[in-house]
Specification:
The complex is a heterodimer of chains A (985) and B (432). Chain A contains 46 helices and 17 strands. Chain A is of the alpha+beta class and 985 residues long. In chain A, helix 20 runs antiparallel to helix 21 and helix 34 crosses helix 35. Chain B has 432 residues and is α+β, with helices and mostly antiparallel strands. Chain B has 9 helices and 23 strands. Classes of the chains: A alpha+beta (985), B alpha+beta (432). Chains A and B meet through helix 2 of A and strand 17 of B.
Chain lengths: 985, 432
């Protein structure tokens, strides 16, 4: 009785009875004050009270109020041994405590305790809470623990079930946190578990894991098949709790079937036969009379059936199963349930692409066509269109296209555009008779002109031009179509183009004499938009060439103010150019300039690409399957082909713009349509190229940049090329590893200056000045490289790459570059920021490769980056005792380096001092007995530790020689420091 | 103009719906409910545009009154009308609540027919409306009566009918002011203004003409300029500067403009003669001195002193807000009763009889609960006061009210006049 929490019930009913928002607010305020006083009060609250108040807070929070106290009490509840109290505590925590709350630590401790508890109920509560919070932190903390629970021998069923689901959740939030270990193989065996709940949970987990690395879980195929077999052969009385409306374990079956779709059909024949049997049983069950009239029964049964059919389609290997699936789906086509019809059509779409079941699908053509006409639901009609498209082949193309055309008249606006594309593609793909094709497309334009995209009518023109046999027919049909009182602008475009090219072929007929043709076209002129008018003008000038007798009429039209002084530049220019062409040139010139268009190069229809753009998922599925069918052995070949085709498409692109302008002009005004008609299809092939390169690319810009990339980095290093090319993501690689210094290094003498100073000019020639400014703090540094353009012209394609000549440098230095833009304007200066972290001591020197194009000539400069180990050295002060102590400690032969060398500069003590201080060492006086000697210390700071170094420099004025001794903890360092310092003095 | 008018209860159910124009469809009713009444975030703007339709609403207790229009109309006019309508409904059936509206919905529809015509506001005067819309059963009216009503409603003095007769000619005048104040903790006045109303209740026979005199600077000075001899001895003080004022439609504005005289023929019964606003030289009736001390994170001490600056006994209520994480309050006060009201998050201190020129103190200790979220600091809302004092804080004075009735034989002396001043608290707040 006490557990019913009467106070909570009263409070909730009070809130419900509130007449207004204000009243509700008042009631809540009162309750909050009450809870606060209770929590604050001196009397300790017992578990029941705490639970009640926490519950109330939870309720208030869920009403939309902020709660900023009570968290501690909720966490306290976790310590209770009572289920209800623990449960409310966990509930509050998973709803209210944010990830970065400081109480989270306490909560995690509690979770840990509960996970280790012997009471399965407590373990379950903890697992639930972990899953509900499901944060990255939780994953980090518990992901390694939970698999143990999952495969522990004596764990209860409910624990295993919760553990699997919890792990699934963590895996979804942070897949990298979940370690894959030996438990993975044992998790597969959960498929054999006695308890169906455990199996269901495990299947979900396994499927998620399989998606990441299918190879590790190959074993689950046979296990899940045998499990599936046990379920489908069992009668609904066997599984008791797991039977849903007479269907044995439908969820589990669906999950198992889905899991199997991640793998190819099993190779082992016995296993394969077993699976085939299962699928057959499922298909058999579908035809059995239903055991119940309830909708739940049929829903569950059909869910299993559809998943089985998807698996059949996925395997695509057993003809009999495919045909059976198809006939089963055929029955659904006339089902009363809209959802079933939709699903049946969708699955059939996939079946139609399989070679085994294509014919079987074709048998249902009539039903599908009726569905198209009589279906009430637009989404189902859409699917029907898809299916018709998928089942179409040479034998039934005319029929299907005819049906689609009739449907087009009444089709919904939402699917018209797609329908038009599909008709256009089918008509082209399966056209045996091109007069039929021309008829179809013209019909299409007539019926749904607004939905006919540019590509469709470009295509019809391409085909007419390439096929001599249809030209006359096309001209005649177009002429007739134009005679209709109202015709679509697209029709006028096609008509203008075709009559301009082939008007002469029908000029013999009195009904379509040259002047009639011209009058007909010009009758539409004033109704059209400027681009079409421009096209018509081109058609007119073509007609001048074909029929000299109507020249005067056409000149009159071109001369009219409406054209010659049109506000549209394109029309005006065409009119004036064509006018002088018509007036002044001889027939010979005319004939040459206005020659018939050459045939277009054959290529893939651009319409197809458009359709794909519209519905990527479905179309790709169909296309990929189609390709698989055609070229089973190498399914990737298509992609490869696309990739190799891309550069070919790209090369003429640059030249294609201007050279063949007149040809393109005839077809359309805009330059992008030009290129399209000329067979360059820049926009279309660019993504293909990018995709071929390995990544998902964007538009044509991507292509450009990736070409650029290949150009830049392949010349700098061979190994960099593939990596840069694969980076179709347009982000240029700025740090290249392991490339040999290809170009000769310039500016070496300047580089030496930088050993002791941090800013100055690193390199300078007539074009470019490279300045450097660095500052270092402990183990990290920032190098700002200034590129100054000294010329009055911009430097194009500017790029800089940092080469690490020694591959070990990658581990020693962490380099990050904030790249510059690809252009340095005239007399402009840009800067590039390089941040460097010194991970460990390093000896080689990174190279900076600069490339740019100056007045058309590519330039390349390789510089040594002034980054030496002493930059990370900090001077350190010490007294003579410590100095000698350290000196002695570091006197092992490999730690010591001594050099005697000729002085390179005048031996001035002051200059030498400045240089040594600039180098990074301190100068310690009163240590060496000889005051002329220099002694100092410094610490090289790296991320992996500090390296103390000491030195002693003894000048010999008479001989102009130095003796330099460096002691350092790390053997290489002393040598390197010695070398560096030697060059300076 | 107004396309439609809807009345909702707090649940968003439509109680009254009247559409005046065709451009407002039924879906407008739902649009307002969904987007304003049931909005996720409380909608604070009284004007809302939903799908190119403007919704103007006022809320009275739990009732939403909403005017709808597709046109770009004068919002001030709409609100003036809505408030007028509330006033009319109030005078017909008292308090405006769901039950009263449900009980009187026939009457309300009848009123709406008169108040608005094709969306244009018509007659909104209660007195006139009551002559032909009654709550009693339909009384068959003779032809003469109907013509009389028509004549009167369309005539020059629409607000008063002829032939009124009283045995005792009486006149009540109330000057009601609400005092608004915002004061800094140090006692500096941050903003203060008084908005006042002159309410009149007239029981006068015939068609009397009244003249009303107040101590406004402009009026007084113009008067003085007119007859300089009499004003020579008058003191300069005692005049107030009214910022702006507005009059009932019965006041002859032409006379006010030329002669600075307020002259009118009053409607019968109760009406609001004028409204004014004043911001200068306000005598504040009370002074609140707060002292808030936060002792650590779990305790707070509050001391509040209230001083009265006038000579009279009144009822006062002081409201002291408490932090949102208050877990307990101990209050000690020298006079009156003080209680922590958790539902309002405030300490309410009531003094039934606050003497004049007195000073009382309250001190409270507030226990706080440690909040988990430290980022949110308490914003310290101001301490507010509620009171009613028997004088006008602005210094507004009625100098005279003269009644002239030429046709009937009673003179100014025969009229019994009552004048009363009431100063109420508006938003009377002191920051702490």
């Amino acid at each position: 009785v006490k557990d019913s929490m009467r106070g909570l019930a009263v409070f909730i009913s009070d809130i419900r009875n509130c007449k207004s928002k204000e009243a509700e607010e008042k009631r809540i305020n009162k309750e909050l004050a009450n809870i606060r006083s209770k929590f604050k009060g001196d009397k300790a609250l017992d578990g029941y009270q705490k639970k009640k108040y926490v519950c109330k807070l939870l309720f208030i929070f869920l009403l939309g109020n902020d709660i900023d106290f009570g968290h501690m009490e909720a966490v306290n509840l976790l310590n209770s041994n009572k289920y209800t109290e623990k449960q409310i505590g966990y509930l509050f925590i998973s709803v209210l405590i944010s990830e970065n709350n400081e109480l989270m630590r306490l909560v995690q401790q509690n979770l840990k305790n509960d996970l280790a508890s012997r009471n399965p109920v407590h373990v379950n509560l903890a697992l639930e809470c972990i899953a509900n919070i499901g944060s990255k932190e939780m994953a980090e903390m518990f992901a390694p623990e939970i698999p143990k629970l999952l495969v522990m021998g004596d764990a209860g069923d409910t624990v295993k079930q919760s553990a699997a689901l919890c792990l699934l959740k963590l895996f979804r939030t942070a897949p990298e946190m979940v370690p894959l270990g030996d438990w993975t193989s044992r998790v597969i065996h959960l498929l054999n578990d006695q308890h169906m709940g455990v199996v269901t949970a495990a299947v979900s987990l396994i499927e998620a894991l399989v998606k990441r690395n299918p190879d590790d879980f190959k074993g689950c195929v046979s296990l899940s098949i045998s499990r599936l077999a046990r379920i489908v052969t069992s009668s609904y009385t066997d599984l008791q709790d797991y039977t849903y409306y007479f269907v044995p374990a439908p969820w589990l079956s669906v999950k198992l079937l889905r899991l199997l779709q991640n793998y190819p059909p099993p190779e082992d024949t016995t296993v394969r036969n077993r699976l085939a049997e299962c699928l057959e049983t499922i298909l058999n069950k579908a035809v059995e009379p239903p055991k119940s009239k309830k909708v739940q029964h049929s829903n569950a049964k059909n869910a299993v059936l559809f998943e089985a059919i998807s698996l059949i389609i996925h395997m695509d290997s057993d003809p009999s199963l495919l045909v059976r699936a198809c006939s089963q789906l055929g029955q659904f086509l006339s089902n009363r349930e809209t959802n079933l019809r939709y699903l049946a059509l969708e699955s059939m779409c996939l079946l139609a692409t399989s070679e085994f079941s294509h014919d079987a699908v074709k048998r249902h053509q009539e039903t599908v066509v009726t569905a198209l006409k009589s279906e009430r639901d637009v989404s189902v009609r859409q699917r029907a269109v898809d299916l018709l498209y998928a089942m179409c082949d040479r034998s039934n193309a005319e029929e299907i296209v005819g049906e689609m055309l009739t449907y087009l008249e009444t089709a919904d606006y939402s699917i018209r555009g797609e329908l038009v594309l599909k008709i256009a593609i089918l008509a082209e793909k399966y056209a045996s008779d091109y007069t039929w094709y021309v008829d179809t497309i013209l019909n299409l334009i007539r019926l749904a002109g607004d939905f006919v995209s540019e590509e469709v009518w470009y295509r019809v023109i391409q085909i007419v031009i390439n096929r001599e046999d249809v030209q006359a027919y096309a001209a005649k049909t177009v002429f007739e179509a134009l005679e209709a009182p109202a015709c679509h602008e697209n029709m006028v475009k096609v008509g203008g183009y075709i009559l301009g090219e082939f008007g002469n072929l029908i000029a013999g007929d009195a009904r379509s004499s040259p002047s009639t043709q011209f009058q007909l076209l010009h009758g539409k002129f004033h109704l059209c938009s400027p681009p079409t008018r421009a096209l018509l003008l081109s058609a007119y000038i073509k007609l001048v060439n074909l029929f000299p007798e109507i020249r005067e009429d056409i000149i009159a039209v071109l001369e009219s103010d409406a054209n010659l002084r049109n506000s549209n530049v394109e029309i005006q220019q065409r009119a004036s150019e064509y006018l002088s062409l018509a007036r002044n040139s001889t027939q010979d010139v005319l004939a040459t300039v206005l020659e018939e268009m050459p045939p277009f190069p054959e290529r893939e229809s651009s319409i197809l690409a458009q359709l794909r753009k519209k519905k990527p998922a479905v179309e790709d599925a169909i296309r990929v399957r189609g390709e698989k069918q055609q070229q089973r052995p190498a399914s990737g070949a298509a992609d490869g082909a696309a990739a190799s085709a891309a550069p070919i498409a790209a090369t003429p692109a640059s030249g294609g713009g201007g050279g063949v302008k007149l040809q393109g002009d005839i077809a359309g005004a805009e330059s992008n349509t030009d290129s399209d008609l000329l067979g360059l299809d820049f926009g279309g092939s660019a993504p293909a190229a990018a995709a071929g390169g390995g990544g998902a690319g964007g538009g044509s810009v991507d292509l450009l940049s990736s070409i650029l990339d290949v150009g830049v980095s392949s010349s700098s290093s061979s190994s960099a090329a593939p990596s840069a090319a694969s980076g179709a993501s347009a982000q240029r690689k700025t740090v290249v590893v392991g490339a040999g210094a290809s170009g000769s290094i310039v500016g070496e003498e300047n580089w030496h200056k930088f050993v002791c100073k941090n800013s100055g000019v690193l390199y300078e020639n007539d074009i470019l000045q490279v300045g450097v400014k660095c500052d270092y703090q402990q183990s990290s540094g920032r190098i700002v490289v200034y590129y100054g353009n000294k010329t009055p012209a911009p430097l194009a394609q500017f790029a800089s790459v940092i080469n690490l000549p020694d591959s070990s440098l990658t581990n020693q230095l962490g380099i990050q570059v904030k790249p510059v833009g690809d252009r340095v304007g005239a007399s402009e200066q840009v800067n590039e920021v390089i941040t460097v972290d010194c991970m460990a001591e390093f000896f080689a020197c990174p190279l900076l490769n600069i490339r740019f194009v100056y007045s058309g000539v590519a330039q390349s400069i390789t510089l040594k980056l002034p980054l030496t180990i002493n930059k990370f050295m900090q001077s350190s002060e010490m007294d003579s005792a410590t100095f000698f102590q350290h000196w002695k400690q570091l006197s092992q032969p490999e730690q010591e380096c001594q050099k005697i060398f000729q002085a390179k500069f005048p031996m001035d003590a002051e200059t030498t001092k400045t240089k040594i201080l600039g180098f990074g060492f301190s100068l310690l006086s009163n240590i060496d007995s000889n005051p002329a000697n220099f002694v100092g210390a410094g610490i090289v700071q790296t991320k992996s530790g500090n390296i103390g170094s000491l030195f002693r420099l003894e000048p010999n004025q008479q001989a102009q020689m130095y003796r330099l001794t460096v002691h350092s903890i790390k053997p290489g360092v002393s040598k390197r420091l010695c070398e560096l310092l030697e060059t300076q003095i | 103009m107004i396309g439609g008018l809807f009345v909702y209860n707090h649940k968003g159910e439509v109680l009254i719906s009247r559409v005046y124009r065709d451009d407002i469809g039924r879906n407008a009713v739902d649009a307002f409910r969904v987007n304003v009444i049931h909005a996720r975030q409380q909608v604070r703007s009284p004007v809302n545009m939903i799908a190119r339709t403007s919704f103007f609403h006022v809320k009275r207790s739990n009732i939403w009154l909403c005017a709808v229009s597709k046109k770009n109309l004068n919002a001030a006019l709409v609100f003036q009308f809505l408030y007028k309508m509330l006033e009319v409904m109030g005078s017909y059936f008292g308090k405006i609540n769901e039950e009263n509206i449900k009980n009187n919905f026939v009457l309300i529809y009848e009123l709406l027919d008169e108040l608005l015509d094709y969306g244009y506001p018509q007659n909104t005067d209660t007195g006139v409306l009551k002559t032909f819309i009654t709550q009693q059963g339909v009384k068959s009216q003779t032809k003469e009566e109907t013509t009389k009503i028509t004549n009167q409603v369309t005539g020059q003095i629409a607000w008063r009918r002829e032939g009124i007769k009283y045995r005792r000619n009486e006149l009540f005048l109330d000057v009601v002011e609400s005092v608004n104040l915002l004061m800094s903790p140090q006692g500096q006045v941050l903003s203060a203004h008084v908005s006042g109303r002159v309410l009149m209740k007239s029981y006068l026979s015939g068609m009397p003409e009244c003249k009303f005199g107040i101590n406004d600077k402009v009026i007084v000075e113009s008067r003085r300029a007119a007859d300089s001899s009499s004003a020579a001895g008058a003191t300069k003080s005692g005049h107030i500067a009214i910022d702006d004022c507005q009059f009932h439609q019965c006041v002859k504005l032409s006379k006010f403009d030329t002669e600075h005289a307020i002259s009118f023929i009053p409607p019968d019964g109760e009406f609001e003669l004028m409204r004014y606003r004043n911001t200068k030289d306000i005598s504040l009736p009370f002074r609140v001195i707060p002292l808030v001390r936060e002792i650590g994170r779990t305790k707070m001490e509050v001391k509040v002193v209230v001083k009265s600056n006038f000579k009279a006994v009144t009822k006062v209520e002081v409201r002291i807000p408490t932090p949102l994480n208050t877990s307990g309050v101990q209050v000690i006060c020298m006079k009156g009763k003080a209680r922590y009201k958790a539902s309002d998050n405030a300490i309410v201190w009531k003094i039934k009889r606050m003497g004049g020129m007195k000073e009382w103190q309250l001190s409270a200790e507030i226990d706080l609960l440690n909040a988990t979220d430290k980022a949110k600091k308490w914003t310290r809302p101001p301490i507010s006061m509620n009171f009613e004092v028997p004088f006008a804080a602005s210094g507004f004075k009625v100098r005279y009210l003269k009644v002239f009735e030429s046709k009937l034989n009673y003179s100014d002396h025969d009229v019994i006049k009552w004048v009363r001043y009431i100063g109420k608290s508006g938003l009377y707040e002191t920051r702490c």
